[in-house]
Amino acid sequence: MRKLKNRGIVFTVLVATFAVLLTWRKISAGDSISQNEPPYEAPLMEDDSGLQVIPKFYQILLFPGHSISDLSTAIGQDIQPHISHVFDELHVEPGDVIFTVKDVDDKLLASIRAYKSVKIVYLDYTPELDDVLTKFDEHQPD
Fold first, then answer.
1. What is the DSSP letter of 84?
2. Which of 11, 49, 70, 102 could form a disulfide bond with 84, CB atoms 3.0-4.6 angstroms apart?
């Protein structure tokens, strides 16, 4: 009878150990324990101003404290060759990183949007000539 009790205890310990190892493996692999939580996807924002969209060009806004090199590391691809412009501190809120990327296919866009430090992805637009001329005129001396 005693051997039977010991086997029951050993079996219980083995099952518990297996359950702990399985849970640890899921967590270390990055799997969510809760299957109800959908994967992160940064919002893709469109402008309703009627401007023409530039295909495969996007503006990326990162959460404060994150960098372009963090993004490259997270997606496993160097994003630098795709960067066409990084906005300077005069044009962004303190701590924000905003930059424009070019030649971004659907696969790369999905990788960028899946990175949790990407706050928003904006479609990029061709500026209207009137807007460009107005800004030019504003910077000309009288």
1. E
2. 102
- Chain segment 25-55, per-residue pLDDT in tens: 544 444 545 567 889 999 999 887 778 899 9
142 or 80, greater pLDDT: 80
pTM of the model: 0.64
Give the residue carrying structure tokens 């706050």.
119
| Residues 23 and 81 both lie in one domain | no
Written as six digits, the tokens of 114 are 């899946």
Establish if 141 belongs to a structural domain: no
Supply the CATH number for residue 64's domain: 3.30.70.80
